[in-house]
Design brief:
This protein is of the alpha+beta class. The chain contains seven helices and ten strands. It has a four-stranded antiparallel sheet. The structure holds a DNA duplex (12 and 12 nucleotides).
DNA sequence: CGTATCCTGACC
DNA sequence: GGTCAGGATACG
C-alpha cells in the first residue's frame, strides 16, 4: 500500500492511538525483524513514553521521551492495525507495540519486508533523505542541481529518496503523466519551466500532505490513478493506448503520445 | 548505471 | 509453476 499519502494516513492512525502513551512492550514476531533489534534492547523500551510520531518521506519515527527513536518503514506492504492486547493477533502481524492502556498496535505486512530500527539518542535516523515534497525548499533550482549529476531517465530519478522523499512507483508515473513529461527523458537537461510543472504535479498527486500550506484549495480533488496499471487502455487526455515499460526493474506506465521527450 | 535480493501472496 | 507486486539496498 504505502506511498507518502498512505504512510501519512498510517502515521495519523498511530498518532491517535499512541501519541503521549506509554509502551508496555514491543515484540518482534518475524525473524527478519528480530534480527534487527536485539531482545535486550527491546526490553529497554518498557515504560517509555511515545512523545510524538513524525512522518518523513515514507518513514515513521516514534520519538520517545528519553530521546531515542523507534523507526518504522513499511516498504511495499506494511500497515498498522489498532486493537487490544486481549484480542487475537491480526493476520500477518510481524511486530506489536503494546501500550500500558491495553492498546495493541500491530505492524501487519503480508510480504514481511517492513523494517524497524531503534536509534540511540543523538543519531540521525534519516541521514541522506531528500527534501519533503511539502517543503518550500523543493524548488526548480534544487532539482536542476540534483538532476545535473544524473545521466539516466527522469522516472527512476524520481524514485531516488535521496533527492525527493516520498515519491513511489505509482505516483512517479502519475506525476509525469500530469506534467506531460516522458518517463524516458534524461533528468539532466529538463528545463526550469518543466521542472516547476513537475514539482506542482508531484505535490498534486501526493495529496494534501505534500502540498504547500495555503495552496491547492481543493484538497479533496480527486487524485484517482490516471495511468498506473492501465496498459493498453486509452489515455484519459488523448485516448492513445497507455504503454508499459520497465525502468530500473520497475513498471512505468505512460502515454506515448502526449508525454513528450 | 542495471540486477539480485529480502519475503509472501495473488493471479495467470 | 511462473510472474508480478505501491521499496530500498548491496553489488557488479
Amino acid at each position: 500500500m504505502p506511498e507518502l499519502p498512505e504512510v501519512e494516513r498510517a502515521a495519523r492512525t498511530l498518532r491517535k492511538a499512541a501519541a503521549g502513551r506509554v509502551i508496555e512492550r514491543i515484540a518482534l514476531i518475524h525473524p527478519a525483524l528480530k534480527r534487527r533489534v536485539s531482545a535486550h534492547r527491546l526490553r529497554t523500551l518498557r515504560g517509555t513514553r511515545i512523545a510524538a510520531i513524525v512522518r518523513r518521506g515514507k518513514h515513521q519515527l516514534l520519538e520517545l521521551d528519553d530521546g531515542r527513536v523507534f523507526h518504522v518503514h513499511f516498504r511495499m506492504a506494511g500497515d498498522w492495525d489498532v486493537g487490544r492486547t486481549d484480542e487475537p493477533l491480526p493476520r500477518h502481524a510481524r511486530a506489536t507495540i503494546d501500550l500500558t492502556d491495553g492498546t495493541r498496535i500491530s505492524l501487519v505486512d503480508p510480504r514481511a519486508l517492513s523494517t524497524v530500527e531503534l536509534h540511540a539518542v543523538g543519531d540521525n535516523p534519516l541521514d541522506g533523505l531528500g527534501v519533503e515534497p511539502a517543503d518550500a525548499s523543493l524548488t526548480p533550482a534544487l532539482l536542476i542541481q540534483a538532476f545535473a549529476r544524473r545521466r539516466g531517465p527522469i522516472k527512476p530519478v524520481l524514485l531516488d529518496q535521496h533527492i525527493i522523499a516520498g515519491i513511489g512507483n505509482i505516483y512517479a508515473s502519475e506525476a509525469l503523466w500530469r506534467a506531460k513529461i516522458s518517463p524516458a527523458v534524461p533528468a539532466a537537461g529538463l528545463s526550469r519551466r518543466r521542472i516547476q510543472e513537475l514539482i506542482d504535479e508531484i505535490r498534486h498527486v501526493l495529496g494534501p500532505a505534500a502540498r504547500l500550506p495555503g495552496r491547492y484549495k481543493d484538497a479533496r480533488e480527486s487524485t484517482r490513478i490516471a495511468v498506473y496499471g492501465r496498459e493498453g487502455k486509452p489515455c484519459r487526455r488523448c485516448a492513445t493506448p497507455i504503454e508499459r515499460i520497465v525502468q530500473a526493474g520497475r513498471s512505468t506506465y505512460y502515454c506515448p503520445s502526449c508525454q513528450r521527450r
